[in-house]
């Protein structure tokens, strides 16, 4: 029989409610057994009957918890992950892995010493558009990539008062991990990083804009995000020697779970907005998307915990992301390119 993996969730904000709890419940062989929250009513509104505990120590003292998901505020990720690892638990940490490269390395060393699995949540490797792009590149339809441009723009002109909008690195710490991770998956470590990270909105407590160039020997990667784009549909622009691919619209899985939908059904992860491929002859046509499916991450995580597969996002890959994030902050502060 399949060994059931008991799961404890630290935090029930947007991440816990939309990105973690629904997928644990949808993953065969996983069972969500407890949630750490100071607001039991909020948890029970979405998870009736769920055991709610007040703090991390109480969670770690419960029997039957094999995997701990760290979805607390960023500055607590490292401490919570280390506490869970020292209690003998496997750990999944939401992005960003930590608030510093040193803390990320500290957590990774703890996991290695404990002999426990440590995974980092990079769900957007399983976005419909990114899966489509990987297929196009693998098939050679774009030729050699010359320029890769990745956007994650939003229209939020008035700063919020939440802790997320007060992060020290702001949007670069929030959305940057997604865009950097995708770039590293495709191209590996760059030779240089040039970053412009800034707070441009009136009254913004932390950066709400970034434009970052990753320099490679034969191509360039441009990562861009702003909270002041009324027209924010552009997602990818990729130019290669064999053609160009442009994709508008974002993967709909986040919006679906935020709206309370369960990750199930034949149409889950379907992105109805196709990209457009223009080949070297100038002919343009629509490219239907691969199906996005964050459930693939969760099933891979369950298999890895049972020793039946590879860790879907191991610590070394997340540390590589942290290296670029820290290099970007230095580059922006010093206004120059820096080698990671």
Structural account:
By secondary structure, the protein is of the alpha/beta class. Helices cover 34% and strands 23% of the residues. It contains 11 helices and 14 strands. The strands form 2 sheets. An 8-stranded mixed sheet has the order 8-9-10-7-11-12-13-14. It has a 6-stranded parallel sheet with strand order 3-2-1-4-5-6, sandwiched between helices. The protein is globular. The chain starts with a strand and ends in a 6-residue tail after the last helix.
Q: Which features characterize this protein?
A:
340 residues, alpha/beta, Rossmann fold, Dihydrodipicolinate Reductase, domain 2, 2 domains, 8-stranded mixed sheet, 6-stranded parallel sheet, 11 helices, 34% helix, 23% strand, globular
Classify the helix fraction into a percent range. Answer: 25-40%
Could you tell me the CATH topology label of the largest domain: Dihydrodipicolinate Reductase, domain 2
Strand order of the largest sheet: 8-9-10-7-11-12-13-14
Proportion in β-strands: 15-25%
Low-confidence stretches: none
Structural class: alpha/beta
Largest sheet: 8 strands, mixed
Number of domains: 2
Report the total helices. 11
Q: Over all CA atoms, what is the radius of gyration?
A: 20 Å
N-to-C SSE series? EHEHEHEHEHEHEHHEEEEEHEEHH
**Name of the CATH first level of the largest domain:** Alpha Beta
Q: Looking at this structure, what is the CATH superfamily of the largest domain?
A: Dihydrodipicolinate Reductase, domain 2
C-alpha end-to-end distance: 46 Å
Average pLDDT works out at: 96
Number of strands: 14
CATH architecture of the largest domain: 2-Layer Sandwich
Shape: globular
């Amino acid at each position: 029989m399949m060994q059931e993996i008991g799961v404890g969730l630290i935090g029930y904000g947007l991440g816990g409610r939309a990105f973690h709890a629904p997928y644990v419940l949808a993953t065969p062989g996983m069972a969500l057994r407890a949630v750490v929250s100071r607001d039991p009513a909020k948890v029970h509104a979405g998870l009736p009957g769920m055991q709610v505990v007040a703090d991390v120590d109480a969670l770690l003292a419960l029997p039957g918890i094999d995997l701990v998901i760290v979805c607390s505020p960023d500055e607590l990720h490292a401490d919570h992950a280390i506490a869970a690892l020292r209690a003998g638990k496997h750990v999944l940490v939401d992005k960003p892995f930590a608030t510093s490269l040193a803390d990320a390395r500290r957590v990774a060393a703890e996991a290695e010493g404990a002999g426990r699995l440590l995974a980092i949540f990079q769900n957007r490797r399983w976005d419909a558009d990114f899966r489509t792009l990987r297929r196009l590149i693998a098939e050679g339809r774009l030729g050699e990539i010359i320029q890769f441009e990745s956007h994650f723009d939003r229209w939020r002109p008035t700063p919020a008062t939440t802790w997320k909008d007060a992060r020290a690195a702001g949007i670069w710490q929030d959305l940057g991990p997604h865009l950097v991770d995708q770039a590293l998956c495709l191209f590996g470590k760059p030779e240089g990083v040039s970053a412009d990270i800034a707070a441009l909105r009136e009254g913004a407590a932390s950066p709400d804009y970034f434009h970052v160039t990753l320099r490679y020997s034969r191509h360039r990667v441009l990562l861009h995000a702003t909270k002041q784009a009324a027209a924010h549909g552009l997602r990818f622009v990729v130019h290669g020697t064999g053609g160009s691919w442009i994709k508008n619209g974002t993967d709909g899985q986040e919006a679906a779970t935020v709206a309370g939908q369960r990750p199930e059904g034949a149409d889950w992860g379907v992105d109805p907005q196709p990209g457009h491929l223009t080949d070297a002859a100038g002919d343009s046509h629509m490219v239907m998307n691969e199906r996005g499916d964050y459930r693939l991450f969760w099933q891979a995580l369950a298999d890895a915990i049972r020793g039946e597969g590879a860790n879907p996002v191991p610590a070394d890959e997340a540390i590589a992301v942290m290296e670029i994030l820290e290099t970007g902050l230095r580059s922006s502060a010093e206004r120059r390119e820096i080698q990671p």
